[in-house]
Structure formats: C-alpha cells, structure tokens
Input
Amino acid sequence: MGDLARIFKAYDVRGVVPDELDEETARAVGAAFVEVTGAGSVVVTHDMRASSAPLAAAFARGAVSRGADVVDTGLGSTDMLYYASGSLGMAGVMFTASHNPARYNGMKMCRAGAVPIGGETGLTEIRDRAAELLASGVSDGGAGTVTRRDLLKGYADHLRTLVDLSGIRPLRVVVDAGNGMAGHTVPVVFEGLPVELTALYFELDGTFPNHEANPIEPENLRDLQKAVLDVGADIGLAFDGDADRCWVVDERGESVSPSTITALVAARELAKQPGATIIHNLITSLGVPEIVTEHGGVPVRTRVGHSFIKAEMARTGAVFGGEHSAHYYFKDFWFADTGMLAALHVLAALGEQDRPLSEILARFARYAASGEINSTVADQRAATARVRRTFEDRDGVTFDELDGLTVSGPGWWFNLRPSNTEPLLRLNAEAADEIQMAAIRDEVLAVVRS
Output
C-alpha cells in the first residue's frame, strides 16, 4: 500500500518506471479499475514513451481478466482519450507522464463520457484494490477481448466541427511539439487548412532530446519564439508531452498569457451562446471575469485543478473554462480539456481578420501578472501565516481561502498556494501595472523566504 500511495496522486497516477510503476502494477490497476468502476468496456491510449505501450498492454490484460472488453487506440494525446471516451461511451485510461522526464510514466483515468476520476471519485478505491491484488496476485484469463481501433481521424474531424476554419486567410504557423504527442496529432488536425506549417520537434521521442515538453516554463519556449521570428510566422503554438496543454506565442515572439487566451475563447463562445457560464480558476487574471461580464456571460471562480473545473462546469452547465496552466475545457468536448481546440479557436480569431495576433489580443490583456513563482519552504503553513499577518492590518485588504490564501487590495491581488507533492509555496500576483505588481510580488517573496 505504501508503494502505491507514492504514485497515486490527487488526480492521476505518476511514478518512476520500473521502480515505482511496472507492468505487474499496471495489470493490477487494470483489474482494480474494472472492479471499482464496473466498466464493461475500456478504451486505452498511450503516449510515445518507451514504457507506455508495455504498460498499456499490461493494464489491458488486467481489465480483460475481469471480463471487460478493451479498445486499444495505440498512440494518442490525452485529449484524444477524452474524445474516445466521450464518443464511444467508454471508461478510459491514458498512459503518460505528460511533461515529466523520460524515466516517469503514469495514468490518467476517466469514466464513460470523459468524466474524471480523482482521489475523491474512485482513484483511492482503485489504489486500495490494486494493492490487494498485488499482494494476492492477478489471475490471467477472463472473458474480455482486446481490439485495435484508430481514432485519430475521428478526433481531428470532431474538433474541426466545433470551430469554423473554412474562411480563414492563409496563416504561417510554427508548432513546437517538444517530441511529444502533438507531433502525431497536429499533422492530421491541420490537414487541408490554409496553414503553412513549420514543425519543430515532431519526432516522437520520450527522452525529450531537445527540451522539456512543458511550455509553462519560459526556457522551453525559446526555440519556438526564435522560429516565429525567423520565418515571419503569424503565430506559434507549443504543446506539452501529452498534448493536452497549448501555449501561444504571438508574431513578435512574445509569450501570451493563458488568461488572455481564456478571455479570447470565452468571448467567442459567448458570441455563440449569449448569457452562458464561463469557469475560471482563482489565479487567472481579473480581466477574465471582467471580459466575460462585458460579453454578457456569467463568470464563476473555482479552485485550481482539473477535477474542480470539470465538476463546476458540469454543475453549472458552463460552456467553457480556462486555467493559468494553459488547460482549456469545453462543454462541447464532454467538459474535458483540450489544448488543440483552444488552438483552433485562436487560429480562427486570427484568420478571420487581417490584424496581427498581438493587436487582436491587446484588448484581452489588461493587467500585469507575475506568473507562477515557486519558493521552497520547510513549513508552508507558517510561511502563509506570516504573509497573512503582514497584510491583515492594511486598509482595503480582504482575504479568502478557497484555495490557499488570496489577498486582494486596491488595484492588486495575490494568491499563495501550497504544492500537494513538494515543499513549495506557489505565488501568483497581479496588479494594474508592472511597478505595483513587482512591489507586491517582492514584498510577499521576502516574507515567504525570510
């Protein structure tokens, strides 16, 4: 149980192969998954890591041993799994460790219809049952079957039904796949579009030989930014390892905040569905709820994390949700996250007019933001308490603890959240201008790191 507790996280499974996650463990999890969820059929997808296909096959053997039929889609992105789960009406699992180093792998699980499975919605029970099966052994056999099915074209066709790209002008687009699954999906999704594509690192390679496939880190965008300027591109897109997140770079080679993309896509969705609800997490820009309201929508604030976003979207019937980490969620995509669909929205917005992307996005970027800054601290709670004491006697300052500590003052706010897995505090700060933002950011960091 102790071994599995290390790799079963709040929303998924992730660990070092084979020390923490091996084929025997994957097979036990496959059997436990079917027992706990009661799934009669399971769709299985995997990324390009060397360990992914063997782990996926072992999971399938475990599921079959409990009588489930498995549909093996082979290589795919995480949002391709959600498409498969939604369109086929099956529970599913994706084998990936996203942007983590090559020695890692993991599983993202969902029920039929891409309904997420997290710690409070079945993942803990799957962990406990898998531990019992590892202790007693997983029997082979069972009445289930495994069939192979290619869903890539269906995935691409479905996305393109959700965004009208038929009338866009020709665009020069640079895509950095980071040797991850976007190298597999982008060529098919973009096929036939008026797009001149410059491909960076489309070779599937789970060792990530060029850079980490994590676009939230600025150093991983440098090759994309340079390529955009070198070829005179209209836009650059960077995907993470399992291609469910997408980061945007404008024609000047400047990184675009996911909050800005959230506001843009929200405005487009509200034009189609006036008065709809839009979800944003508590560390997206204040500009997001302002723009949603101005476009006649209803903004709803939630905690950070895909399980919270998806649950709130289902509860409210929201048409769209966005996070600071470049995860974007769509009601039309089974309330699941897909960076590819967000990218198509941005391409449509850009291609429908002649202005450059930076000019189009200017009205959606209203505040100066720090980005996420991590601090290593021995005692997260004590450091957070010190920060609260520093600000609690100031006029016009308010506090809330929906997720960590959020402190708001005249023209500024910041959020301080503990990491669930590391001794870190994560700071996000925003203000009306760079000078005020920097002052708040530096004051908080000085207290946290004192």
Q: What stands out?
A: The first strand starts at residue 13 and ends at 16. DSSP finds 15 helices and 23 strands in the chain. Residues 156 and 191 are 9 Å apart (CA to CA).
